[in-house]
Design brief:
The protein is of the alpha/beta class. It contains 5 helices and 10 strands, in the order H-H-H-H-H-E-E-E-E-E-E-E-E-E-E.
Amino acid sequence: MKKTSQVIWGIILIGIGTVWALNAFGLTDIDLFFDGWWTLFIIIPSIVGLFSNHDKMGNLIGLCIGVFLLLCCQDIIGFGMIWKLAFPVIIVFVGIKMIVGSMWNANQIESLKQIQTESGNVVSKATVFSGETLDFSGEVFQGAQLNAVFGGLKCDLRRAQIDQDCLIDASAIFGGIDIYVPTNVNVKVSSNSVFGGVTNKAPYFHDENAPTIYIKGNCMFGGVDVK
């Protein structure tokens, strides 16, 4: 995923540099600072995210917003339509995501439910307008429910004892959650996010005999980072 993101950004930067150079030599006359050029800071990251992140729906929403703002800046659509369509469009996207997610991830959802039922000592922690660190060094970890609302939460599992599959249910609302995982476990991530998402930066590891940490992220104007 990271390599895909780098390749896409590389192509975009090469394209911008090439056009800039051609303009300097008078070979082309392409205005890089057209009306609404700033919307590219929304559109381009959303396009990159569609190809490199797990959270496709969140990036699709961002892309639609960026394109809509660009059309407004180009006087194709009036800015007054933003307030009329913003909430209906968000509601529709959330509904589509729920339907598609339930259809495509049915098997995974059942597996997560079974793991959640079989888990023993599940840790539950919530932070509101604050920050906190959970360090499980030397402890047996069997799962956790993490909630960050207008705050930050750090969960360190790098030196924890993980003997079986476990589930981390992480919800970030206007906040952020960092989850540090050990290098000797499988990590599988799923997300259900609106204007946020889950980023998996954990080193690649695959061993059928090793336990798996399932991380289910629910984000709204927030994010979950797996490292």
